[in-house]
Design a protein that fits this description.
- With about 260 residues, the chain is an alpha/beta fold.
- It is built from eleven helices and nine strands.
- The strands form two sheets. Strands 3-5-6-7-8-9 form a six-stranded parallel sheet.
- Helix 9 crosses helix 10 (about 215-230).
- The relative contact order is 0.13.
């Protein structure tokens, strides 16, 4: 598994409080099958004002400790950028994209979208970036109407859902939204958004839940295949769910039946 959204760097945001906690969590993640971890500390202007220099310092510290502990995992440096009208300049200056790829993890307000959200995303895409909107199922506009996901996808914005959302860790409403969006193909990546607060690893649990509820192919696509393409800066399809043969039930109908039973 490849986890593209984590707050595993020590003492930098609201995630891991110290190096000991980071190492403990990483050991647990590796035991559950993780091979690559993307470190995405928050960048929230005036709150978590983590510059590239600060992130790199923590990143190198963690890498050094992983090497000392001989943990078999590869780390990748990035950030989770809270969008505002200065985000493009900040992302370029601080090199907040994931490794040497053009993918960049972004987030926005949970309650309502800012009026200039699409404009901000448009200019990111125009500059060649590949924005990934973190945890859309947790945003109220998506909960009210998940069909707006297509607006983002048509604007070349990818969607990353939190594994815990499928498990009910954020409440029933978000859980239903997550499964509903998955049934429509409105997700390209699933990641843990690990803040080092749980003993159980949500990404592994979500993999099992999706494999059992839908199929192993879908779980692997969103937790292994697409994340691997991301790290290689390869093309990832925005729309990948198609109706099956008309003589059979469509792929979406099959998923909806299984999700209905689950919830």
């Amino acid at each position: 598994m490849i986890d593209i959204h984590t707050h595993i760097l020590p003492a930098i945001d609201d995630g891991s409080p110290d190096l000991k906690t980071s190492i403990k969590q990483i050991k647990m993640m590796v035991e559950r099958g993780v091979t690559n971890i993307v470190c995405t500390p928050h960048f929230m202007r005036n709150n978590y004002h983590n510059t590239d220099q600060i992130i790199t310092s923590k990143f190198q510290l963690l890498k050094k400790e992983i090497a000392r502990e001989k943990i078999d995992v590869k780390l990748h440096k990035a950030a989770e950028v809270y969008l505002d009208n200065k985000s493009l300049q900040t992302i370029k200056k601080e090199q907040f994209n994931i490794d040497n790829t053009k993918f960049v993890l972004v987030e926005t307000s949970m309650s309502e979208f800012p009026a200039d959200l699409y404009d901000i995303l448009f200019h990111l895409v125009l500059e060649g970036y590949k924005p990934i909107l973190a945890h859309p199922e947790r945003y109220q506009p998506f909960q009210k109407n998940c069909e707006i996901a297509e607006e983002f996808m048509y604007k070349n914005v990818y969607l990353q859902m939190n594994a815990g959302s499928f498990l009910g860790q954020y409440g029933t409403r978000i859980q239903k939204t997550a499964w509903n969006m998955l049934s429509k193909g409105y997700v390209h990546f699933i990641a843990s958004d690990n803040h080092c607060r749980h003993e159980d690893y949500s990404l592994a649990l979500a993999y099992d839940a999706i494999a059992e509820t839908i199929d192993n192919y879908t779980a692997k696509l969103l937790i292994e295949t697409n994340p691997k393409k991301l790290l290689n800066d390869e093309k990832i399809d925005f729309f990948y769910v198609e109706a099956s043969n008309t003589e059979n039930k469509t792929f979406l109908e099959k998923i909806k039946e299984k999700i209905k039973k689950l919830l």
